[in-house]
């Protein structure tokens, strides 16, 4: 599959579109909003998409070529979607570039914070970052279950090849199936 990926631009575009669709589906999973307390708002949905894109990008950066090209195509597709969403929300042509710059800064800032916590294996730091960014919870006290979900998703993705990422089927664990660090239901 990988060799054929670059033979035709249309095939490449279709594979990345499929990955993007699977990320969007995961970001819309009802369990994120009902069980893990992600706010069901425009901002909450933006955070859910960013979180899932970040997790996929994290894995793509760990894989050999052509995964880096896939990552770039994915981020281009995601930001094109953000651009279209801003326009649908009524942001004018003059305001879109300024908003897109802020969205990119938000995305990459969050990615940096999440990476540091995941790389260190620091669930508390991850919960604080997720609490602040996703839940609006300054100390991260309510974000433990969301941190457990991110840790489980990262572990699942760590076993995925590029073919797995570009294939079919779920990339992320269902939020309802993730056990919390305490073993209790959130």
UniProtKB/TrEMBL annotation:
<dbReference type="Pfam" id="PF03981">
    <property type="entry name" value="Ubiq_cyt_C_chap"/>
</dbReference>
<comment type="similarity">
    <text>Belongs to the CBP3 family.</text>
</comment>
<dbReference type="InterPro" id="IPR007129">
    <property type="entry name" value="Ubiqinol_cyt_c_chaperone_CPB3"/>
</dbReference>
<dbReference type="InterPro" id="IPR021150">
    <property type="entry name" value="Ubiq_cyt_c_chap"/>
</dbReference>
<dbReference type="InterPro" id="IPR014569">
    <property type="entry name" value="Ubq_cyt-c_CBP3-rel"/>
</dbReference>
<protein>
    <submittedName>
        <fullName>Ubiquinol-cytochrome c chaperone</fullName>
    </submittedName>
</protein>
<comment type="similarity">
    <text>Belongs to the UPF0174 family.</text>
</comment>
<feature type="domain" description="Ubiquinol-cytochrome c chaperone">
    <location>
        <begin position="34"/>
        <end position="171"/>
    </location>
</feature>
């Amino acid at each position: 599959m990988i060799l054929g990926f670059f033979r035709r631009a249309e095939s490449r575009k279709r594979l990345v579109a499929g990955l993007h669709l699977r990320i969007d589906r995961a970001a819309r999973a009802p369990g994120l909003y009902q069980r893990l307390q992600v706010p069901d708002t425009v901002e909450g949905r933006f955070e859910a998409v960013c979180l899932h894109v970040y997790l996929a990008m994290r894995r793509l950066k760990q894989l050999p070529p052509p995964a880096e090209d896939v990552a770039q195509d994915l981020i281009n597709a995601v930001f094109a979607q953000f651009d279209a969403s801003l326009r649908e929300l009524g942001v004018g042509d003059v305001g879109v570039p300024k908003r897109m710059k802020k969205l990119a800064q938000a995305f990459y800032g969050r990615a940096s914070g999440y990476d540091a916590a995941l790389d260190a294996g620091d669930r508390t730091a991850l919960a604080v970052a997720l609490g602040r960014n996703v839940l609006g919870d300054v100390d991260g006290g309510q974000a433990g279950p969301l941190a457990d979900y991110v840790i489980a998703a990262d572990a699942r993705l760590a076993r995925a090849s590029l073919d797995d990422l570009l294939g079919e089927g779920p990339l992320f664990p269902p939020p309802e199936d993730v056990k919390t660090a305490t073993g209790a239901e959130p």
